[in-house]
Amino acid sequence: MQHSRLIANQELQPIPDRRNWPIWPWALLGIFALIDGLWLLATPIALDANAVGTIFSLMPLVVAALLGAKRFEDNDAIYVVCTGLAFILVAWPTLRLFNHLSMTTALPWADATLSQLDSMIRFDWHAYIRWLDGQRWLLSIMNWTYTGLNGYSIFFFLLLALFPDRRAACFEFIALFVVSASLCMTLGMFFPAQAAMVYYAPDLAGFQHVHDSLGTYHISSLNMLREAPAPVLELDSLPGLVTFPSFHTAMGVVLIYACRRSLFLLVPSLGINLSMIAATPLYGSHYGIDILGGIVAALATIAIIRHLERRASDATDWVSQLGFARLKAPAA
């Protein structure tokens, strides 16, 4: 009888949202890894001798991060940091390798096409870099924001892990990253281009701060992939090779979107990423159409992730309607 009264006095409480992250981003990486492996097997392209060591040095870190996520599954902060770290460690070599392999095709250079599209949208690349040359203070900021994308992306991810809705926010960040990178690299393989700085080859004799080495750090790797009969890839040194659409631009937009939950994050994210996007024509040697393409790729990514989130939310609501609840004992 006393036991019955105890049960009657207990109140039903919803089960806390402790859902683990969906598996689909890992599956997407698996697809790219499979493509990488098949591409290497089917072509004369090879990885250098240090690549195996690099991969094996990453594996213990990935395993340790995943074990940490499993061990501290109920600690939101530790869970999202460990899972995010494991994902990034796998995504970095997988996606960069695909980017380089995809540039070994015999597709013609797209620079002329991209330049024509710039004319259509009335973007004057020469006039823009000429104006930037007179903004020394702005060039210093742009140099930092463009080259520091990887570092401050991870920094913002770690800041998101400090907020109450960290599981949703950090997973969204990871999902936005992998989908935007996948879109840009897949589209980019059909538009191989050298660089605006190389295609236009401007006379920089009268410039003070702009020089022809800006935005051309990738040219030697790109030419080697297209000209060498048996390219050898150094996994430790794989610069980004996508021209259209601009991945820097896409990542800048999704970073701003990912930080929308907090004014504390949104304000610096806006400043840093808008500066970085503005820097892409010079420091990334991008055409104007590349930036527009990056924005479209980012918006498409956001639409995809929002659609997937709605589907996941609908599934959760359906499960909750089944009446699953946790019994909470009353206070003594």
SSE layout and pairings?
Blueprint: H1 2-9, E1 11-13, H2 24-42, E2 46-47, H3 49-71, H4 76-101, H5 111-120, H6 125-133, H7 136-147, H8 149-160, H9 166-188, H10 196-200, H11 219-227, E3 232-233, H12 247-258, H13 263-283, H14 288-320, E4 326-328
Parallel strand pairs: 2-3
Antiparallel strand pairs: 1-4
Transmembrane segments: 21-45, 51-69, 76-95, 141-163, 170-191, 238-258, 263-283, 289-308
Domain Inositolphosphotransferase Aur1/Ipt1: 113-303
Organism: Parasphingopyxis lamellibrachiae
Walk me through this protein's architecture.
It is a single chain. Helix content is 67%, strand content 3%. By secondary structure, it is mostly helical. It has one domain (20-315). Helix 9 (166-188) packs antiparallel against helix 12. It is globular and about 60 Å long.
Q: What count of domains describes the coordinates? A: 1
Q: Kindly state the mean pLDDT as a whole number?
A: 87
Which structural class best describes the helix and strand composition?
Answer: mainly alpha
β-sheet strand percentage? under 5%
Record the strand order, biggest sheet. Answer: 1-4
Radius of gyration: 24 Å
| Principal-axis shape | globular
Poorly predicted runs are 6-17, 317-332
What's the N-to-C terminus distance? 18 Å
Give the strand tally: 4
Give the helix proportion (percent range): 55-70%
Number of helical segments with 4 or more residues: 14
Write the H/E string, N to C: HEHEHHHHHHHHHEHHHE
Largest beta-sheet details: 2 strands, antiparallel
Domain Inositolphosphotransferase Aur1/Ipt1: 113-303
Protein name: PAP2 superfamily protein
Pfam families: PAP2_3
Keywords: Membrane, Transmembrane, Transmembrane helix
